[in-house]
Write a structure and sequence with these properties.
2 domains, NAD binding, about 300 residues, 7-stranded parallel β-sheet, alpha/beta, Rossmann fold, 9 helices, 12 strands, oxidoreductase, NAD, binds NADPH dihydro-nicotinamide-adenine-dinucleotide phosphate, D-isomer_DH_NAD-bd
């Protein structure tokens, strides 16, 4: 019997108990899944932010910590964690993110607000350009960013992508490095942020780099709040340089009710709903990693602890 500790908030247990047990059965694994064990008998820890487990040292038998979330910034720097850390790459979450990004890009591309908010008898017959005339840049070409970049490219948008390492992707202009970032931003009528939060990406969009964006460009941030210097963004919006910011993630969540983002006419706040780990598909990913651990195969989606993602 394999002992798997579900170390997450109680509402997650309600969401995941059945789907995880179903996935273990499907994978032919005999797993005792519980929210509490003596630490020294635990084989795997299934982990989510705000987990009750913060000190991993007593988990002497644990073969891996399997994160239920794509982002690992809450656990990657934990010095007591010496076991392998895997993050979540879930087809359901990727699909959700593609839908969110496409929806919000299309809102701005088509200028939908003009008609949704303008049902006042005025005939505003401004025809939007075709996708081929709207340049979209995606910062972060990982599981989520690349899927979004590909979907945007398939719709006809000229897409530029930026990542840490050099990449070659058909149909997408892939850039890296600081010079690449400048080019990527200068080519962004619409900018999508899908970078992880690491020391290297914190405040990436500061005053200088926001100025590289074309006037009236739109920022869509489902990555992490810390990627943008909030004060610099507000200044750029107030100066009417950035046209609009659709923000899904924030330094403090929930976003405090008195935060300027809520009332700013050029900001749309969505409450960290761009995409969530989907219990059914994510449970299958967890089961597959436990199967691999038991078969002494390499784990999927291991986090590079030095890079922080
Ligand atoms: P991945 O780890 O697969 O991809 C990260 C991408 O960012 C990679 O392309 C990586 O480059 C790039 N990157 C990392 N650091 C740098 C850097 N310093 N400079 C340039 N590029 C960098 O992550 P995912 O795509 O799965 O997820 C991205 C983020 O999306 C998550 O970390 C999380 O913060 C956020 N997220 C938000 C959700 C929401 O609901 N709002 C839901 C799920 C995730 P390289 O390819 O070279 O490694």
């Amino acid at each position: 019997m394999i002992n798997a500790l579900f170390a997450a908030l109680p509402e997650r247990w309600t969401q995941y108990e059945k789907t995880l047990n179903d996935a273990f059965l499907e994978a032919g694994l005999q797993v005792d899944l519980r929210t509490s064990f003596a630490p020294e008998v635990v084989d795997y820890i299934i982990y989510a932010p705000n987990s009750p487990v913060q000190d991993f040292r007593p988990y002497t038998r644990c073969k891996a910590v399997l994160n239920l979330w794509a982002g690992v910034e809450n656990v990657v720097g934990n010095v007591t964690l010496t076991q392998p850390l895997a993050r979540m790459v879930d087809p359901g979450m990727t699909q959700g993110m593609v839908e969110f990004v496409i929806g919000h890009v299309m809102r701005h591309h088509l200028g939908m607000d003009l008609h949704i908010n303008g049902q006042d008898g005025q005939w505003r017959d401004h025809v939007p350009p075709l996708a081929q005339d709207r340049r979209v840049t995606v910062l972060g070409l990982g599981e989520l960013g690349l899927a979004c970049a590909r979907a945007l490219s398939e719709l006809g948008f000229p897409v530029t992508g930026w990542s840490r390492r050099e990449k070659f992707v058909n149909g997408i202009a892939c850039l890296n490095g600081e010079h690449g970032l400048q080019t990527a931003l200068e080519n962004a009528d619409i900018l999508v942020l899908l970078l992880p939060m690491t020391p290297a990406t914190e405040n990436l969009l500061n005053t200088d780099r926001l100025a590289w964006l074309p006037k009236d460009s739109v920022i869509i941030n489902p990555g992490r709040g810390q990627l943008i210097d909030d004060g610099a963004l507000l200044e750029s919006l107030d100066a009417e340089h950035i046209g609009h910011a659709t923000l899904d993630v924030f330094r403090v969540e929930p976003l405090p009710t008195n935060h300027r983002f809520w009332s700013h006419p050029r900001v749309t706040v969505t409450p960290h709903i761009a995409s969530e780990t989907r219990a059914k598909t994510a449970s299958q990913v967890i089961a597959e990693n436990i199967r691999r651990g038991e078969a002494e195969l390499p784990f999927l989606h291991l986090v590079d602890r030095a890079a922080g993602y």
